[in-house]
């Protein structure tokens, strides 16, 4: 069994383009987040690479395939594969998104927001409980960015998440960029969101870049983190404590050295809050 110390500080998303460099140079990065769905095929090149990375760095798994809010039945085969992979690499936790990603067997490849109401709340809580029973561990759920709202939503996003956490006993992957993007797109105070999330529920945070489209902000994960997101991150650290944080950069992927510069900035904010 692969053993590592507890994850802390600021880590990076593990991207296949950087793995050879990481294995050759062993840069001083405290931990990595691996995209679950890229490594589920046992014996594949990707899987073998991940197993090698796991020998040297603590890992967490972050997926897009659970479709927590979907009307489709849970994919037991998929969840079993996730469980096996997590055991193989000693993943410190498993996360996925509070959203739905498809219907009637079709996958949208988008993280689609949920209607926030009592019916959806009850449904999602039950699904998360089932998933946690299958995985035999606590699930960590991430808040998603959104560009529309449902007419039948009668609960705020932050109160919905707080209720999900309370009833399912799951944890939260708090995406600071998504909170800021949604606060701009839907005109709410992001601090109100932070203050509604239970303090002891936040397992991890994400930081990423957005693109300003004029009428709305688009969560692209394709550029550097913007100043207001850094400011909101500092507020989040003050409220939730020294929560492990990850730099997400998926599109227009820069060099590992550039990612480490962004990581260093996050570590500076982290250190400033707790100095």
Write a brief caption for the model.
The chain has 275 residues and is an alpha/beta fold.
Structural summary, described in words:
By secondary structure, the protein is an alpha/beta fold. It is 41% helix and 19% strand. The protein has helices at 19-25, 45-54, 76-89, 118-135, 157-168, 176-186, 190-196, 227-240, 256-274, and strands at residues 10-13, 32-35, 59-62, 94-97, 100-103, 106-112, 139-142, 171-175, 202-207, 210-212, 217-219, 245-247. An eight-stranded parallel beta barrel has the order 1-2-3-4-7-8-9-12, surrounded by five helices. The chain has a two-stranded antiparallel ribbon with strand order 5-6. Strand 2 (32-35), helix 2 (45-54) and strand 3 (59-62) form a beta-alpha-beta unit. Helix 4 (118-135) packs across helix 5 (157-168), helix 5 packs parallel to helix 7 (190-196) and helix 7 (190-196) packs parallel to helix 8. It is globular. The model has no long low-confidence stretch (mean pLDDT 94).
